[in-house]
Amino acid sequence: MAKHVGIKLPEDLVNVIKNGKTVAILATFSEKGLPHTTPIQCIYPKGLESILLTINKDHAGYHNMVWQKKVMLCFLDEGNVAYSILGRAGVVRAPSLVHPLMNVVRVDIIDIKSDRSVLSRVDTGVRWSYTSADAEELSVALMNELKELAQTL
Predict the structure, then answer these.
(1) Pyridoxamine 5'-phosphate oxidase N-terminal domain: from which residue to which, for each copy (predicted)?
(2) Structural domain boundaries of the chain?
(3) 74, 90 in Cβ contact below 8 A?
C-alpha cells in the first residue's frame, strides 16, 4: 500500500539522485490520452521540492510534458528506495547549454508517495553504463549543467 510522504524529497531519495547513477521512469500522457514512459538518467534535485532533468526536445515524453505539464517520476533503487513523485513540469532552459537537442526541465513536486512493499524490498535499481567516451562526456556535462542550475535557478 502506498504511503503519502509529502512534498519534500526524503533524504534517501536525495542521496540516490545525487549519486548520478539512478534512472527515473518519467510517465506522461499524450493529447490522445495514451500513456508514455521514458527512462531519464540526467536528474538532479533542486532543493527538496523540485527536480531538474534533461530530455531530448524531440522525444514524445518531452512533447507530452510540455502539453500536459503534470508528470510522474518513479524511482526504484538500492536501499529499498521506492518512490513515485507527482509533479508539474516546466522548461527552464531550451536548449541546454551543453547540447542543442537537449532541454532542461524542472519538475516541481506536488506529492510524493512511498511505494515500498511489506512483501519485498528493492535491492538494486536499473544500472547503466556509457556506450562510448563521447556519451560519457555528454552525460557528465549535462549533469554538471543541472548541478549548476540547482544552485542558481
Answers:
(1) 18-101
(2) 3-152
(3) no
Q: Which among 78, 47, 79 has a CA at the least distance from the CA of 149?
A: 47
Q: Are 109 and 50 in contact (CB under 8 A)?
A: yes
Tens of pLDDT along the chain (153 residues) come to 568 889 999 999 999 999 999 999 999 999 898 999 999 999 999 999 999 999 999 999 999 999 999 999 999 999 999 999 999 999 999 999 999 999 999 999 999 999 999 999 999 988 889 999 999 999 999 999 999 999 998
CATH fold for the domain made of 3-152? Pnp Oxidase; Chain A (2.30.110)
- Nine-digit cell at 100? 542543442
Closest by Cα among 65, 50, 140, 48 to 103: 65
CB 49 within 8 A of CB 112: no
Contact 50, 106 (CB under 8 A): yes
Task: Give the C-alpha separation, 52 to 40, whole Å.
Answer: 11
